[in-house]
Description:
80 residues, mainly beta, 5-stranded antiparallel β-sheet, 1 helix, globular
Amino acid sequence: SESKVKKVVSIPAIDEGDLWTWRKYGQKDILGSRFPRGYYRCAYKFTHGCKATKQVQRSETDSNMLAITYLSEHNHPRPT
């Protein structure tokens, strides 16, 4: 069976983020939050069957920071 991995990190909003390639597939307003949450999946989902996803939302306490939740691991090497 596949193992789900959940990792939450905070980074400055001006940071380029991680070195993976992502495609945005949705956005949702979150109840009680001033900022919407963006949903991303690995760009290699269809070519490599990668199930890695992430959710990105601006921090409520410091709008200069992003809270990123990673779900699942990539099943391929990092793109160069």
